[in-house]
């Protein structure tokens, strides 16, 4: 019960606490980018300034989205010759095009004359790439085919479109805007190529797309994706297809019932993994996440709960037309993380999501649902069944990211400790983030 004396005592305390917060935050504001990173206590979250500062945001884009390999699309974005997809990352713009020989090419979306954008953001189909400004015209292989009024000494071969380093892995289109590309993309390629191969994902099409702009920093979006501490309370649709033990758990003081459930979980996992391996479907976990990684990734094949077929509310396939020529529906969830994306591939459909930072407090989250190229809507699948899990999950995550971003910008915010059982990958992401900036002298 509160008394007048206790209320008065509380009022006397409030200014001193508030003043301490103000002094703490003013001190943080004076710290450099590197000092802020180094101020993080091991096992704790990042300082709030790293989520809200414009200077930090610009450096993040430069390092993590221009100097690293980033996912920018899927091959089904440009299914036919002449199809074009534009992706903007910071001040840079990338033009993805399928040429007349069915090859996917990527270029800087900059005319070689006076720099005009060749295409605006979005998708289109062209015969050639024509600059609206002065009609400089480029073939789909990037070569300059027409430039009027430049005289006989002008050499068009010197003004081809500027190519972008590109890797197609499965259906994933990875690009790097830097000349010095991280070589460990080869590890990702070597790991994922045989895992994706049975699905024949380049013979897929986009059944549905979703774009969300989350009012939060890109790092918070990725941190949220790296843990399932929150899943049981906030993602009823997603958890329908997950085994509870995959969320992470504290192994201390388990009840007898929980111990039995854990043993059953281990047995089911082992049985499924052995069955997949016998049929040639690789499922072992590979992690390339620690501080010495540049092209960070993690992959595993998760057992799906219930009917065990797909990430749907029923846990059965949403599309009866399976990828490639797959012989079985129960192939689990082939999962892939990178530092700007997450992927779930099931026997019948895939959900591929990547993020692009727009501002310190704005992040574009773009998701694509893929099905077999010959799958027919209304006959082989219904869009609602296909999308209901991840449409709901993405919107739920949007809210979680936004309330977290707002909280990290509050003067009262002090980074809290991570759970070693359910947030170890968030802690690891923070260490990797610091290491990569350190490698660039920050």
UniProtKB/TrEMBL annotation:
Its required cofactor(s), as named, are:
Fe cation
PROSITE patterns in alphabetical order: RIESKE
Report if keyword Iron is assigned: yes
**By its UniProt entry, which SUPFAM superfamilies does this protein fall under?**
Bet v1-like (SSF55961), ISP domain (SSF50022)
Q: Which InterPro entries match?
A: Rieske_2Fe-2S, Rieske_2Fe-2S_sf, Ring_hydroxy_dOase_asu_C_dom, Rng_hydr_dOase-A
Q: Quick check: keyword Protein biosynthesis in the entry?
A: no
Which keywords fit this entry according to its UniProt record? 2Fe-2S, Iron, Iron-sulfur, Metal-binding, Oxidoreductase
Entries under Pfam families matching the protein: Rieske, Ring_hydroxyl_A
From the UniProt record, which GO molecular function terms apply?
2 iron, 2 sulfur cluster binding; iron ion binding; oxidoreductase activity
Task: Provide the Rieske domain boundaries.
Answer: 69-175
Q: Which family does it belong to?
A: Belongs to the bacterial ring-hydroxylating dioxygenase alpha subunit family.
Q: Can you say what this protein is called? A: Rieske 2Fe-2S family protein
What organism is recorded for this protein? Answer: Caballeronia arationis
């Amino acid at each position: 019960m509160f008394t007048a004396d206790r209320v008065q005592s509380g009022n006397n305390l409030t200014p001193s606490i508030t003043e301490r917060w103000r002094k703490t935050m003013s001190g943080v504001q004076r710290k450099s980018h590197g000092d802020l990173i180094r101020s993080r206590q091991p096992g704790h979250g990042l300082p709030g300034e790293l989520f809200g500062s414009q200077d930090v945001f610009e450096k993040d884009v430069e390092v993590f989205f221009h100097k690293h390999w980033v996912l920018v699309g899927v091959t089904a974005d440009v299914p036919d010759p002449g199809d074009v997809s534009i992706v903007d990352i910071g001040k840079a713009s990338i033009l993805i095009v399928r040429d007349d020989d069915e090859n996917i090419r990527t270029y800087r979306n900059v005319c070689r004359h006076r720099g005009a954008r060749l295409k605006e953001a979005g998708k289109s189909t062209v015969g050639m790439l024509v600059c609206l400004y002065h009609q400089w015209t480029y073939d789909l292989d990037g070569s300059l085919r027409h430039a009027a009024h430049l005289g006989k000494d002008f050499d068009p071969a010197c003004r081809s479109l500027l190519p972008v380093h590109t890797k197609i892995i499965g259906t994933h289109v990875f690009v790097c805007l830097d000349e010095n590309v991280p070589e460990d993309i080869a590890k990702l390629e070597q790991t994922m190529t045989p895992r994706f191969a049975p699905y024949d994902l380049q013979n897929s099409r986009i059944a549905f797309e979703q774009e969300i702009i989350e009012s939060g920093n890109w790092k918070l979006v990725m941190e949220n994706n790296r843990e399932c501490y929150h899943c049981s309370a906030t993602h009823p649709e997603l958890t329908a297809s997950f085994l509870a033990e995959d969320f992470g758990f504290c192994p201390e003081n388990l009840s007898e019932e929980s111990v039995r459930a854990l043993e059953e979980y281990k047995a089911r996992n082992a049985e499924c993994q052995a069955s997949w391996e016998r049929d040639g479907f690789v499922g072992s976990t590979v992690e390339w996440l620690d501080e010495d990684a540049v092209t960070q990734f993690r992959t595993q094949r998760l057992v799906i709960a219930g009917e065990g077929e797909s990430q749907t509310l029923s846990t059965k396939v949403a599309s009866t037309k399976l990828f490639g020529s797959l012989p079985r529906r129960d192939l689990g969830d082939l999962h892939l993380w990178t530092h700007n994306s997450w992927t779930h591939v099931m026997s019948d459909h895939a959900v591929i999501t990547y993020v692009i930072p727009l501002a310190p407090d704005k992040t574009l989250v773009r998701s694509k649902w893929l099905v077999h190229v010959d799958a027919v809507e209304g006959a082989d699948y219904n869009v609602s069944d296909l999308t209901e899990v991840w449409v709901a999950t993405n919107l739920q995550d949007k809210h979680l990211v936004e309330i977290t971003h707002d909280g990290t910008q509050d003067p009262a915010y002090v980074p809290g400790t991570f759970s070693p059982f359910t947030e170890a990958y968030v802690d690891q992401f923070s260490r990797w983030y610091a290491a990569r900036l350190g490698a660039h002298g920050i």
